[in-house]
Task: structure prediction
Amino acid sequence: MTESRQVAAGVFESHVRAFFVGHAVEAVGCDLGPERRAAVPGLRVFVVAPGPRSDCWAYVTAGCWGAMQRDGDGLEFVMTAHVRDERFVELLAMIAYYHCTGHPLDVEHSMPIGEPWVPGSACDHLLISLPYLHGPDLEHCPLPGGRARILWALPVTGAEIAFRREHGHEALEQLFDEVAIVPTDPFRASVA
Result:
């Protein structure tokens, strides 16, 4: 890792830890395996325990920015869940690899997981959205010579993705608001 990327990685980690002050934060290494490691070198996921900001667990990638930044700007991802589970670290590693290997994600994009978010869940896709549960203070991380933007990987159903394709992203988010989904509930009913 270049010195400038090391500095940016340190600034990013400080940003996440400062946002979640009062929460236990653990940096977990993600070994994607020898064939995939080069796509997101040094990928880690910050596992954030419940605390004063949120009663849920948060998982934040650290490594996408360094692999994909353009002119100093790049993305990282956050997922919020009801429990601590290695499954969510693995999902974020999957998102990072997908994003960094020719499928760049951004707001309003989605990706299939290929299986339920957790066993028995109808959510089998991820919708990339603004991090509404955490707000712009987490979303925007100034870095030397650029910024990292942290977007939310929200588990959704295939029917909700079909609804979004037909009616648009904003219409789906309005539906989520009207129904008042609990985004960390893996067994929530589909709104579409």
The first helix runs from residue 3 to 19. Strands lie at 25-29, 44-48, 57-62, 73-81, 110-112, 123-129, 140-143, 146-157.
